[in-house]
Amino acid sequence: MTAGHTCTRVRIRGRVQGVWFRAWTKEKAEGLGLDGWVCNRTDGSVEAVFAGPDANVRAMIEACHEGPPLASVDDVVSESAEYSEAGEGGFRQLATA
């Protein structure tokens, strides 16, 4: 990992499935130049891993508190993650896991 870069795992809860949250997250993350992925979880939450410059990861996490227009976010929990969890580069939208 490059100095000034971070990797964070985020779990978003609320009305976050069926409201284009994954597509919105992918678009936002790509715009911020982040690597990682986003997927729906069977418990109704959305999980994501964001990797990249510290400020851009923080901005993405803050954006997740709002989400896309149809979402209603109740909670966003983040924790440090290994940079390798982000994958091979780029940002991907994954299937429900």
Features:
97 residues, five-stranded mixed sheet, globular, alpha+beta, 5 strands
Short description:
The protein is of the alpha+beta class. It contains 2 helices and 5 strands; from the N terminus they run βαββαββ. It is globular and about 35 Å long.
Outline the structure in words:
- Helix content is 23%, strand content 38%.
- It is an alpha+beta fold.
- The protein has a 5-stranded mixed beta sheet with strand order 4-1-3-2-5, with helices on one face.
- The mean pLDDT is 95.
Overall pLDDT confidence: 95
Which bin fits the share of residues in helices? 10-25%
Cross-sheet strand order for the largest sheet: 4-1-3-2-5
Distance between the termini: 27 Å
**Helix/strand class:** alpha+beta
Number of strands: 5
Low-confidence stretches: none
The main pleated sheet reads as:
5 strands, mixed
In angstroms, what is the radius of gyration?
Answer: 12 Å
- The secondary-structure element order is EHEEHEE
Kindly estimate the percentage of residues that lie in beta strands according to DSSP: 35-45%
Question: Any idea what the shape is?
Answer: globular
Q: Enumerate how many helices there are, as a single number.
A: 2
Please specify the SSE layout and strand pairing.
Layout: E1 5-15, H1 21-31, E2 35-40, E3 46-53, H2 54-64, E4 72-80, E5 91-93
Parallel strand pairs: 2-5
Antiparallel strand pairs: 1-3, 1-4, 2-3
